[in-house]
User: Fold these one by one.
Assistant:
Number 1:
Amino acid sequence: MSTRVWPRRLLTAFYWFVAFTFFVGFVTKYWPGPTFFGPAYSVKFVEWGYPSWFRFVVGTIEGVCAVLLVIPRRRFKFIGATALILLLTAATTTHIVAGSELYERVAALTNLVIMFIFALINWPADWRDLLRRGTTAQGVPACLK
């Protein structure tokens, strides 16, 4: 086995691990009662100054982005990481302003840094690449051929 395969497989495994953690976040945001992270998120969101239903918005974004992170196309990984950067910036700010536990502040900030790294790894050469479906060897979009 080539020595170049291992770093790629490790990175893929890391994407899956991070996506799994956001999927757990998705499930716990929809969970009606207390979670293994403490009180129900409906209660936590109200304590942080948000409406209780906002947990569904955050959970949905986490779930969709978790799926995007494991799709083996760079543009999907980039879009997922970028959306999570926006979400995690708000989460980090919320945890700092609300005076949340240290582990919650550190976890949000750590995930934010990881998403910045994922976005940089998958940065498109041209922003229009995010909109293209694919091109043939001659550069003609596949949808026009």
Number 2:
Amino acid sequence: MSKELLSDMTEFHWMMDMLQTVDVGLVVLDRAFNIKLWNGFMESHSGLLPSQVREKCLFDLFPEIDQKWFSNKCRPVFDLKNRAFIIWEQRPYVFKFSNYRPLTGTEDNMYQNITLSPLTSTTGKVDNICMMIYDVTDVAASKKMLESAQVTLNEWHERT
């Protein structure tokens, strides 16, 4: 084996390891919303192994996801090669994962920000998209507590 090939294989190995251990959910979907990639974050929070979800339709596995809404959100990503974003203020989560952080235990579910990115093939066509799921529960819980404190303070000022 050549030194260059060994170097390429080593780089590929650590890149795959990084995809599995990064603290961000990574899901690759094709145009029929079949799951092509499911990383360790998704496995950990869903309880589903990559082998259990690969080549299965997202909506069959997660019927709580509004198919029409999500499909409309993904259309410009596939067709126009544009990114799309789903923020927790608009929709607290897409995947109903339990909140697992002891410091933010005030929330039952994980709040999520999601980026939908086109994955361009070698032909320039977008046949797959990548979902990047970020856990923003700490941010959401803090903002909700701040808003609640502001309401309480305003009520107190109105009484005095």
Number 3:
Amino acid sequence: MKKYEALGVVETQYFTIAMELLDQMCKSSDVEFLASENYLGGRLVTLIIGGSVSDVTVAVDVAKQVAETKANQPLKMALVINNPHAEIMKYIISSQPQSEVEEGKLNSIEMETKEESKSKKKKSKKAVKNQ
């Protein structure tokens, strides 16, 4: 599991504003999007980012500035957690790395296509024998 120097947690109203904040945070500094959670059908969204302390701090500050320009102050909470404990990281990031998940999907797709091609070959051989 990758270790981050800091985590940024931003909670805002409305999914679209959360996506705008995430876009601005990722553009403003070298942070990595780790997770998000939707509550109340997308009316309350929590974004979690990770990176170095300075990058996460800059990203969270940018999120605060962007949210100030919006009507009704949609930002509910924004904080930076320095040096997060490993137990927190286990809760945020799934235990199976994304690359393993993608490889697993890829392997299952490859297996399906191999099985399909084998069955097509068998059918074509049977068709040739029947003629």
